[in-house]
Design goal:
2 domains, two-stranded antiparallel sheet, Arc Repressor Mutant, subunit A, 123 residues, mainly alpha, 2 strands, elongated
Length: 123
């Protein structure tokens, strides 16, 4: 369920984009799910068509949805590909840690520090 808070300082397109992205990433919306048309979702949420269109464009640019012309927009498998890339990177990291003789606790601290630095550098 999408809820747009008109009193929020966050623009409606960003509220919509963030909520759809979260639903895709947590698998509430499964790969292959057909999304409502831009016009229908705009009408349902009381938003301008351009607002919903912008949210869909940004989701498409992020690889979370794909538009198949007149067939509509669908949840993309790209999110699954990103998770698989992360799993491979984690396996590679584990191999480096093992070969360097670093214990698990220190390896986890290294990852936590890297994630903290990365999250602070994001807009």
């Amino acid at each position: 369920m999408i809820v747009i808070d008109s009193a929020s300082p966050v623009p409606p397109f960003e509220q919509l984009r963030a909520q759809l992205a979260r639903q895709i990433q947590d698998h509430t919306l499964a790969v292959g799910t057909r999304l409502p048309t831009i016009r229908r979702l705009a009408a349902d949420l009381g938003l301008a068509v351009n607002t919903v269109g912008r949210a869909y464009r940004e989701l498409e640019e992020a690889g979370l949805i794909e538009t198949r012309g007149p067939a509509g927009s669908f949840v993309s498998a790209a999110g699954e590909k990103a998770r698989e890339r992360a799993r491979r990177a984690a396996a590679d990291y584990a191999a480096v840690i093992a070969s360097a003789g670093i214990d698990t606790d220190e390896a986890i601290r290294i990852v936590q520090a890297a994630l903290t630095v990365t999250s602070k550098s994001l807009p």
